[in-house]
Design goal:
The complex is a heterotrimer of chains A (549), B (310) and C (325). Chain A has 549 residues and is of the alpha+beta class. In chain A, α5 packs antiparallel against α6 and α16 packs antiparallel against α18. Chain B has 310 residues and is mainly α. Chain C is an all-alpha fold and 325 residues long. Chain C has 2 domains: 122 residues, no CATH class; 193 residues, Orthogonal Bundle (MetI-like fold), CATH 1.10.3720. Classes of the chains: A alpha+beta (549), B mainly alpha (310), C mainly alpha (325). At the B-C interface, α1, α6, α7, α10 and α11 of B face α1, α6, α7, α8 and α9 of C.
């Protein structure tokens, strides 16, 4: 649609472009191979990251004995999102690595978002077009089950069809490796899925203790934030950084279990009613008390404006009513098992006295620059210099008092510089994904310590089930057999991570993982046997042929 | 800086020089042109480097000890990650255990492909725009020169990155994107040459003799601007190679091609720049050597097109 | 032709070029597949309905020609629009980055021209000698090094090995001076400037140098130089006379150089982690932040076009013959 509009516009300007050009370049050819004919070169779309380039270099070699050839197309992440996610134009397969955002700790994300047929829409993550009534039923059931043991059972069940149907090759969960200066700071808190330095889980910073007269820590990371307005951005890094200042209602503790944060407690009255109790004596950074009025205001405000970034909140909460001095009753629109983790853990307490008095003329409050954020979290806003640093000061009024006086987070886009700054003492913590080689180099320095933490983030290859031969289950099982996950993890990340069982939940999350399932064993012979069983054959040159009709 | 790559000093200076070679003397300069660089020590050095690059590129599979994309393991089956130079791997290995020397050798092919393709594209576009604009003048000239101004106004690297993002990172897209802007300088210079040539006697004579515009343009005028075109083509090769390396370094190169720029990019993003000098220095030196060689050849041509420098 | 008519015509040309640029940029950015709302989607968390809301909010649901007219009208009023990514006026996003870039590139351009003119004059005066041959080759070498590689090597030596200079960035976040010379004004910024400026000068000094050399060679044959020699002017006085008369081409070129200094420095900014306009530009392209990318491209183009206009007008003023052509 858009592209046609562009072409029309060009024509109006008297410019003609070969009409098929753009599509020919971008289009994923969906040729239907005839029965018995050679399997076409399989299209692969992957981001340009070096680990992905290496992944496909390995897979093209490992899969060659099956008689298939790959046509690997690389694009920037933005192209991947625009084409594969937004336009749902995946060629035969594509690879992606999913970060370990805190809201993905709940198993619902990697199950429902990625494989539910409901998410096989433009912008959805089921871009491999997996459809299974059995899977959908189980996925919906676990999402609506608020009883934890029962839900655990359902979550384990729902992973079985994924391994059996193989809509994706889930490869491994790469460890988070961070480093810090132990001569200057102690009390790091490694948290599952967060490491010691990501801002995803604010408890990671609460134990940091200065050992030298300098009482603030300098942290380097890759990203800079784009905005100080917490209603604007859904991007994980930006939104979690802002939530250091804007306390969410609940958070994750050192064991990555849920704990109250702006709240004192919560209770589930019935599957569609949740009572939340605000922590008494809470204050905003400007000294004004935080009350249930602010809580109610927050939910009403989100429901009123339907901020795209907070749609999961407005989609879940129907109303918020004040029921006591510190209590608010939330009515939910649907039963949603991950409500506490993903809604109360994402929504934050907003000060009513600020957000109800915004200057007029804004299309939406998300457009307000919010140059001096005022929240109720453990860190107060200090200063943000785009491209240089964002600085926070400790909030002594928070119920857990930070041991530091402040933090400075510096965006440094290059790994080389980040390592150099840590080694020279220009920074105190490196909070971005290191690899083992750099980790080993850093460990040589007496003052520096490297910390490895497992995560639920994952690398996967998604198969396009709408395109032959990937629509053939025997073919997909053969690819599973032909993929040596352990070897890939060893080569790409020096073995620092957890090999996947083939299910979207990491075995390290024992609460949700299904210990009884196992990915098909790596074996080229078994892969070829699976193909043969599925009716595939090979021609004289060893090229794989489609099953005869 | 790649941003102002195309605006060579020599070129700017030449913009105001005009050479009108008579038709009679057309063959001699072409011969002289080919042999000219051998006349100075710097020229001989340059020709030696260029010949070496062409030779290495031609026999790369025979010369390279290994497949440039093969991972290497030690006896215990461990990946040879960032292995320093040794007897087996003369320039060590990369982060993923690939042989640096083999990559360096295969890189010569990319350099030649990029340099020559870009130079040809730029030469064809730039020369024709310059010829047509200068010869026809008036509205045609006005339009083409506004287009040239437009090309001059667009910041080079961000534009190439944008085009590659629009299409997809691949060698061909990089080449197209580079050529789409770089024709601007030669177009301008050649136009100013043609402006003066078209008033010359031999052009007028041809016109009176009833020669068609096309014939006058390509048979009478073109040979006279040929030395200038070749000079620009020579420099374009160098600038295109530098530009490709820059695009690759920004992470928009073709990940499937072993180009020198791509090698530097991978060394950089893997954080190995300081540790693995054997992976960082050779591609950088190779690019520089090649570009210097092209510059030196160009310098020798410069004497031809601008007699006062002789 | 009268100067003012010439000036008017050149001004018209400039306006046409700028208009072409605006249209070209607008079309080009919208040919990039995917729309900006998918970038907000990032990792797929934005439901389709929310995306549609954003599209309406940003005016992306309207036909393209309406978007263009709205854009052009806003532009005429000096309104560059709102950044999709930062949700702030584009001018607010661009201004601080532009200032940083000027801070970096002004010394680069000035030093490159000064050193280039001095070196070029020296070489030109020694025309034909072995010193000239070697000097010219030496001047070409830094021009042939990929600028990012020069930067990396300088960093490896002077920041990592000797630790004389910082690794990157424009200033140290919360710098505490330890002695009197660290307390000098601009100490911190200056030490951050040294390596990137050195890299930039190395990469760009060859062009003004070669131009100056060529110009000097040409001037040597002019009548006034012959006269000066005949009058028995001292060698030094002769050189000064030649240098002064040969400087025009370099001045022309410096106009080009200033323009490219805005757009060409993205590699410097990447290697030295300098928060400038070049990086902002590349980032906004990949983030589909059309308003920022368009404004940055346009601004850069406008600088180049206007400087060219200025140079043309200056020549036209000085030399009436040019006005006809």
């Amino acid at each position: 649609m858009r592209r046609r509009a562009v072409l029309q516009f060009l024509a109006a300007l008297g410019v003609t472009v070969p009409a098929g050009m753009v599509d020919a370049v971008l289009g994923a050819a969906a040729a239907q191979p005839a029965p018995g004919s050679p399997v076409p070169r399989l299209g692969v779309f992957t981001p340009t990251w070096p680990d992905m380039v290496e992944l496909w270099r390995q897979l093209s070699r490992d899969w060659a004995p099956l008689g298939i050839e790959l046509d690997i197309q690389q694009g920037t992440l933005d192209t991947f999102v625009a084409q594969v996610v937004a336009e749902q134009k995946l060629p035969h397969m594509g690879s992606m690595s999913w970060g370990g955002a805190p809201d993905r700790l709940d198993p619902d994300y990697f199950i429902s978002e990625m494989f539910h047929s409901r998410r096989d829409i433009k912008g959805g993550l089921n871009f491999g077009h997996y459809h299974s009534a059995e899977f959908d039923r189980l996925a919906d059931a676990q999402r609506a089950e608020t009883d934890v043991p029962k839900r655990q059972q359902l979550v384990r069940e729902v992973q079985r069809p994924i391994v059996e149907d193989s809509p994706a090759l889930i490869l491994f969960h790469r460890d988070i490796i961070h480093a810090y200066n132990k001569a200057r700071f102690s009390g790091v808190t490694p948290i599952f899925g967060n490491g010691i330095g990501f801002p995803y889980m604010p408890m990671a910073y609460m134990g940091l203790t200065p050992l030298t007269p300098r009482k603030f820590i300098k942290i380097t990371t890759i990203y800079d934030i784009a905005s100080l307005n917490p209603f604007l951005t859904p991007e994980i890094y930006n939104s979690t950084t802002l939530r250091l200042m804007y306390a969410t209602f609940v958070t994750r503790d050192a064991k990555a279990d849920l704990m109250p944060w702006a709240l004192e407690s919560w209770s589930i009255v019935d599957p569609k009613t949740v009572d939340i109790v605000l922590r008494p004596g809470s204050k905003f950074h400007d000294g004004k008390p935080a009350t249930v009025d602010d809580v109610k205001f927050t939910f009403d405000f989100i429901n009123k404006w339907k901020f795209p970034a907070l749609s999961r909140v407005s989609d879940a909460v129907e109303s918020a009513e004040i029921t006591g001095d510190h209590t608010v009753r939330l009515k939910l629109r649907t039963v949603y098992a991950p409500f506490v983790a993903n809604v109360l853990g994402y929504a934050f307490l907003a000060p009513k006295h600020i957000w109800e008095n915004l200057p007029s003329g804004l299309a939406t409050p998300a457009d307000w620059p919010n140059d001096h954020p005022v929240g109720s979290g453990p860190w107060r806003y200090g200063e943000w210099k785009k491209g240089e640093f964002i600085q926070f000061a400790a909030n002594p009024d928070f119920f857990i008092k930070p041991k530091l006086e402040g933090m400075v987070v510096m965006p440094v886009p290059q790994m080389e510089s980040m390592v150099g700054m840590l080694e020279r003492g220009d920074s105190d913590m490196l909070a971005w994904n290191l690899d083992m080689t750099l980790g080993a180099r850093i460990s040589k320095s007496a003052d520096l310590e490297v910390v490895r933490t497992p995560t639920h983030g994952q690398h996967e290859v998604r198969l396009n089930l709408a395109m032959p031969p990937c629509d053939n289950k025997a073919f997909r099982i053969a690819l599973q057999h032909a993929t040596d996950r352990k070897k890939l993890l060893d080569i790409i990340f020096s073995g620092a991570g957890t090999v996947s069982q083939g299910a979207p939940i990491t075995p390290a999350l024992t609460q949700w993982a299904n210990p009884d399932i196992q990915a098909p064993a790596p074996s080229i012979d078994q892969a070829r046997a699976a193909l043969k069983d599925g009716g595939f054959s090979w021609n004289g040159e060893g090229r794989l042929l489609m099953p005869a009709a | 800086m790649a941003g102002w790559t195309r605006e060579s000093a020599v070129g700017e200076a030449l913009g105001i020089r005009q050479t009108a070679l008579s038709r009679r003397r057309r063959i001699a300069p072409v011969l002289r042109l080919a042999l000219l660089p051998l006349g100075s020590w710097s020229g001989r050095f340059a020709i030696f480097v260029l010949a070496a690059v062409v030779l290495v590129a031609a026999v790369a599979p025979a010369l390279a000890p290994y497949d440039p994309l093969a991972n290497h393991f030690d006896a215990a089956g461990q990946l040879l990650r960032l292995d320093p130079p040794s007897a087996r791997y003369k320039l060590g290995t990369t982060y993923y255990g690939l042989d640096v020397l083999s990559q360096l050798i295969y890189g010569t092919r990319i350099v030649l492909v990029v340099g020559i393709t870009c130079a040809v594209l730029i030469g064809v576009i730039g020369t024709n725009v310059g010829l047509v604009a200068g010869y026809y003048g008036g509205r045609v000239d006005g339009l083409l020169m506004r287009l040239t101004d437009l090309a001059f106004g667009i910041p080079f690297l961000p534009f190439v990155v944008m085009l590659v993002a629009l299409l997809r990172p691949s060698l061909w897209n990089t080449i197209v994107a580079i050529s789409m802007l770089m024709w601007r300088t030669s177009a301008r210079v050649i136009r100013s040459q043609v402006l003066s040539l078209r008033e010359r006697g031999f052009v007028r004579a041809a016109r009176i003799a009833g020669a068609s515009d096309l014939r006058i343009l390509y048979v009478h005028i073109f040979p006279n601007v040929l030395p200038m075109v070749l000079l620009y083509v020579a420099f374009d090769i160098a600038y295109a190679v530098l530009a490709e390396a820059s695009v690759s370094f920004l992470g928009f190169g073709d990940p499937n091609q072993v180009s020198w720029g791509q090698m530097l990019y991978l060394a950089y993003v893997s954080g190995s720049i300081r540790q693995a000098w054997w992976w960082t220095l050779p591609p950088g030196l190779a690019i520089s050597l090649f570009v210097i060689a092209v510059f030196l050849v160009g310098r020798n041509y410069e004497r031809l097109t601008n007699p006062r420098l002789r | 032709m009268a100067f003012w008519r010439y000036a008017g015509r050149r001004g018209l040309h400039t306006a046409v070029t700028l208009l072409l640029l605006v249209g070209f940029m607008f079309v080009l950015f919208r040919m990039i597949p995917g729309d900006p709302t998918t970038m907000m989607l990032g990792t797929g968390e934005l439901p389709a309905e929310a995306q549609q809301r954003l599209r309406v909010l940003w005016g992306l649901d309207r036909p393209l020609w309406q978007q263009f007219i709205a854009y052009a009208l806003n532009l005429l009023q000096g309104n560059l629009g709102m950044s999709f990514y930062f949700r702030r006026p584009v001018s607010e996003v661009i201004a601080p980055m532009l200032a940083n870039t000027v801070l970096l590139m002004a010394p680069v351009v000035i030093l490159a021209i000064v050193i280039g003119v001095a070196g070029g004059s020296w070489l030109g005066w020694r025309r034909g000698g072995r010193a000239e041959e070697i000097g010219a080759v030496l001047a070409l070498i830094p021009r042939a090094l990929p600028v990012f590689w020069t930067g990396i090597v300088l960093l490896a030596l002077f920041a990592y090995q000797f630790r004389w200079f910082p690794i990157g960035g424009i200033r140290e976040a919360f710098f505490f001076p330890e002695n009197w010379w660290q307390r000098l004004p601009f100490f911190d910024i200056t030490r951050h400037l040294v390596l990137p400026v050195a890299t930039g000068v190395l990469a760009s000094v060859a062009d003004p140098l070669m131009i100056q050399r060529t110009a000097l060679l040409e001037v040597r044959h002019e009548d006034f130089m012959v006269l000066a020699r005949a009058r028995g002017l001292s060698g030094r006085a002769q050189r000064r006379l030649a240098r002064r008369n040969a400087i025009l081409p370099v001045l022309t070129y410096s106009a080009i150089m200033v323009g490219f200094a805005f757009g060409g420095q993205v590699l410097l900014e990447v290697v030295f982690n300098w928060p400038g306009i070049g990086r902002l530009m590349v980032d906004s392209v990949t983030q589909r932040d059309y308003p920022v990318a368009q404004a940055a491209f346009l601004m850069m183009a406008a600088v180049v076009v206007f400087l060219n206009l200025l140079v043309d007008l200056a020549y036209g003023w000085l030399d009436p013959r040019i006005r006809g052509g």
